[in-house]
Specification:
The chain has ten helices and ten strands. The strands form two sheets. Strands 3-2-1-4-6-5 form a six-stranded mixed sheet, sandwiched between helices.
């Protein structure tokens, strides 16, 4: 007797297959249209999903563009170690450019020694674009992350200053992409724009993907600050009057230590994270990004200055 197949599983696979298909189509389109593209790979879950789709699109050892990471010097070692090992596993060329080098050149100047470097990545990124003459950068932004992200096209045009101008974005009706560029301009391409955080985790589960360990529940000293769970590290010490306590946490998104907060969680498997994701009503950036809490560091402002 044939076993019955749960119709809900068929629907899930059909949905993930459609998203994967679209992503692979976009990745191949980039390879076909642009002369010097690169794939932004931080080691985080979203860029890991894009890299898995690139592996399926071209095959391990045959990804036709390098991986690029802009390193603030304040990243979690679990993430950068995963970045290096995954690039080596796929035989991909990994280019790392450092905000600290921009600081040494004087193109990045901090207002104080402990100022977060995350927003300054834009300068180092634009310098890397100029150095390698990249005409397209593939990134892992999704429209459900944040309101400024929701305005993004999949092929996001950037002017000769590397800036995002909402009025200059091109229509993308029927998945037709206008990739014309003037000299000095480039595109940021977001192949998983239409994915949600839940889609990402369900895909990770389906594919049996490995991720940096900090995505899963672990114990860490933290304090509650302005509604966020702030990790206590040498870069983010406790403030006067705060008493750190060791709590079970995990990271929903990863980035610079000075601006990325975990959430309280006991989820230590992908399946448990999916269950938590189904229950949350707050976006990743809304719950975990310290640098998104002020208008001066708003995503839209940073995007207009050349941010991812």
């Amino acid at each position: 007797m044939n076993a019955r197949i749960d119709p809900s599983l068929l629907h899930l696979h059909s949905h993930l297959d459609a998203l994967e298909e679209e992503t692979i189509f976009i990745l191949r389109e980039v390879a076909a249209v642009f002369e010097r593209p690169a794939l932004l790979f931080s080691g985080g879950k979203d860029s890991a999903v894009i890299l898995r789709c690139a592996e399926k699109a071209f095959g391990a050892g045959h990804i036709p563009y390098p991986l690029l990471m802009i390193d603030t010097g304040h990243n979690y070692t679990e993430v950068t170690d995963f970045r290096d090992s995954r690039a080596a596993e796929l035989g991909a060329r990994l280019i790392v450019r450092n905000v600290e080098d921009s600081m040494a050149r004087g193109t990045v100047r901090l207002s104080r020694p402990d100022e977060p470097r995350n927003a300054h990545q834009s300068v180092t990124l634009l310098e890397a674009i100029e150095e390698f003459k990249f005409d397209a950068l593939i990134g892992g932004a999704r429209r459900d992350e944040e309101k400024a992200r929701a305005k993004e096209r999949i092929f996001s045009h950037r002017d000769s200053f590397g800036q995002w101008q909402p009025k200059d974005q091109r229509p993308e009706l029927w998945s037709l992409y206008n990739t014309k560029l003037q000299v000095g301009e480039h595109f940021r391409v977001f192949p998983i724009s239409n994915w949600t955080e839940l889609d990402v985790w369900q895909y990770i589960e389906r594919e049996g993907m490995q991720l940096p360990s900090i995505y899963f529940s672990h114990e860490r000293p933290v304090v509650q600050r302005k509604g966020l769970v702030v990790p206590i590290t040498p870069l983010t010490p406790a403030k006067p009057g705060e008493t750190p306590e060791v709590r079970s946490v995990r990271f929903r998104t990863v980035g610079d230590i000075t601006c990325t907060a975990p959430v309280l969680s006991s989820a230590n498997t992908v399946s448990q994270i999916i269950t938590e994701t189904l229950q949350t009503t707050i976006s990743e950036r809304g719950e975990t990004r310290i640098d998104d809490q002020t208008s001066d560091a708003s995503m839209e402002k940073r995007k207009k200055e050349g941010y991812f």
